[in-house]
Write a sequence for this structure.
C-alpha cells in the first residue's frame, strides 16, 4: 500500500533558471495538499547574485518554504 506524500523538498541548482515545468509540478503537488520547500544548491565558485534572487522570487511566487 502506497502512503500519500506529505511533503517535498525541491533541490535546485542556483545556476539554472526557474522553469515552467517545475512550476507545474509544484502546482500539482499543492493541489494534493503536499507541503513544499525549496533548497537552492550553490556552487563553491562565485556566481551572479541575480541567480539567487530569481530563485527567491520563484519560491515566494509559489509559496514555497525557503530552506537555507
Amino acid at each position: 500500500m502506497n502512503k500519500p506524500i506529505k511533503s517535498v523538498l525541491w533541490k535546485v541548482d542556483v545556476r539554472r533558471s526557474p522553469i515552467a515545468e517545475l512550476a507545474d509540478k509544484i502546482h500539482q503537488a499543492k493541489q494534493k495538499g503536499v507541503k513544499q520547500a525549496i533548497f537552492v544548491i550553490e556552487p563553491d565558485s562565485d556566481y551572479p547574485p541575480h541567480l539567487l534572487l530569481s530563485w527567491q522570487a520563484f519560491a515566494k511566487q509559489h509559496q514555497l518554504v525557503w530552506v537555507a
About this structure: Residues 7-67 form one domain. Helices lie at 20-31, 49-61. The chain has one domain: 7-67.
